[in-house]
Structure formats: C-alpha cells, structure tokens
Amino acid sequence: MAHLVLDPAAYTVAVGAETVELLAKEFALLQFLYEHRNQAFSREQLLDRVWALEYPVERTVDDHIYRLRKKLARWSHIRLNTIRGYGYSLTIEEPRKIENPSIHDEEMQSAVRGLFEKYHLLGQGKSIVALAAQHEVLGFEIDAFFRRYIRFIEGDIRWFLDTDEIAAGERLYWLLLLYWGIAADSERALEYCEAALRQKVMTPEQHREMEILNILEVYADAGQPEKAIARFPHTRRVMESDSLTGFVMPVAIMEMYVHLTAANLAEADRSAARLERLLQSEPYIREIGRFHIMKGLRLLADGAERDAEERLDEGLEVLGMALHMPLYFAAVHQIRLFLHRHRPDSRLRHKYAALYDSLDKEYRLSEVRPEMERRIESLLNGGDRSV
Questions:
Q1: Which residues pair with 82 in a beta bridge?
Q2: Three-state secondary structure call for residue 329
Q3: Is 386 inside a domain boundary?
Q4: Would you indicate the residue range of the signal peptide (predicted)?
Q5: CA distance 69 to 63
Q6: Exposed, middle or buried: residue 64 (CB in 10 Å: 0-12, 13-18, 19+)?
C-alpha cells in the first residue's frame, strides 16, 4: 500500500519525494480520511469527527474536498470518492511497481540498514519515517524491526492491536511501552510489567530492557521510587556485563527521574551533571528532549514555575521534532504526575491537563485504552498465542 507521510507541524503530505502543502483544515480532513481509508462518512459525521462544532454548514466539507482533490491530483492512486447522497471516502490504489535492481543488492540493503540504525541512535524519528517513505523510489526493503518501530514512534496503537505480523510476546512488549504513557492508573501499568517479567514471554532483549530500564520508571510513576533505586546496582551490572553502551543515557535519564520522584534532589543533580557531559559528546535529539523534561521537573521541585514551564515546553517541542509519540505521551504523563504529587496548587496542572486532553482526542487514547488493557491481560493469561 502506498504510504502517505503526514506532517502535522507543517501541514504537509508527502508521497515519495513529492510534498504538498495544505491548509490546517484541509490537513485535518485528509488525516482523518487517511486513518479511516476505505470507510465512507457522511458530511455530518465529518463535521462532528474532524472539526467538532467549528463549522456549522455541510457545504464546508464539500469545499475542502474540492480543494483537496485539486492538490492531490498529481497522485492518481489517491482517490477522494463521492458517495452519492451520502458523503465521501478515501481509497488508495496500489501504484504499478517496477522493481529497482538495488532491491537485490546486498551492499545497498546493508548501507540503508546502517542509515536506519544511525537515525535510530540519534533519535531522529522523522528522518526514519522520511527515509522509509522513499523505499520504493530508492529501491530498498524496510526490515521487520523498523516497520514496527515506525508504527511505534508514530503512536499507531491500533496497528499493534490488530496486526498479524508480530508474535504474542513481542506484541505484549510494544503494547506495554505504549500503555506506559497513557495509563490512567500507573499501578496497573506496573502490575502488567511485573507480570510480563515473571512469565518471561518477551524476547530476551525485550525482557532485559524491561527489567533494567522501562519498569524502573513505572515504579516511580506508581509512587514506588525506592523499589527502582534498589534495582539500580543490577541495572549497572547488566549494562557492564552485556556492554550495553546504547543504554548509558536512557538509564541516566531514568535514574534522574526516579531520584526526582523520591525527592533525592542531590542525587538528581548528580545525574543531571553527568547527562550534561554525555550530551556534549553525543547530542542525541531524543535524549535531549527527555533531559529538558527532567530539568523542568527539577525546577518545579524548587518552585521555579516560570523557568520550569519553559524547560518542559522545550522538552516537549524537541520530542515532537524527534517524532517519538510514546515518549511524548510519557513526558506529559510524568509532568502531570509530578505536579499532582509535588505542586498540587500549580497553575501548570491545568495547562498540561489540557495538553493531554488534546492528545487524547487526536490519538483516541481513552477509546483505545480499555482495548489495550483487555489485550495485555489476554496475553498475560496465556491467550492470543496464535501469532
């Protein structure tokens, strides 16, 4: 299936090397129809689900469809269909393919894999998505991990619920990471993670990451930072014995967050100083964004709300630039938890609650959360083992 690359920051849509600029309302309509392609919607449904009460007349939908058709006309395989007497649908036909010789060139495939891995290391999610969108033009295959990783950083929860491409243990791993940042109850998220580790159903690499990194932040989110701190020595031993150099900064960020939630401010400051040194030599955008969030929480601990707000917003902006929606969800979640526990009277509580509400609406988090919980529980109870 031809892949559209939608950029909500710039209101652009790209297919291959071609990019088209849209108006904000046109972009919202296209994004909705693309997410629900092959489904027909009445004008009333589009008004309600795309723009809520912003537009009072159905004619507005027709106008936007007309303009979108003109702008997308260069891509003949993308069709905005009129359903007579009802409304509209979007369909995408598979364009005729001529296989590039490079698809069978092992040297080329290895080089592209190296580029994907480098972008992954640097935290450049948008670069990964942009490169993947060019795979037919440039003549390379996207390997299984990056096909899944792209869905992950885009926050495509529905795909991880519905796909038949991944085994049960791996599905559980991805769903747990996605659930972490949107859980209404962090203790529930912790119970899921602990059960997954006890049952050893994930791949060895995913089990190890959950054990030495992911679950420690969930302990802090659930108000149990002391349990995370007790596991720090084990994390360091595993990192050293397995030569996990790529975990150095993520673990340092995790430790800073855990110490902040435990009110160990001197230890949090030591972690911050170490991260400053690490980021000078390895300025990875994903870690830069998370570090700004932690610095913002540290400023909140001192009551410096204005400076904290600036840091937090900068961190969220960088995570958005990095295109890592699960970490973006988690950052907003952790900001809200920290404010609730340490600054309950702060004006910032309303601001970040409103930000979460906007994410909830855009990604339908409240709608999909119960289904995630049912699927995770099924996987933990031994169900869903057929894939």
A1: 88
A2: helix
A3: no
A4: none
A5: 10
A6: buried
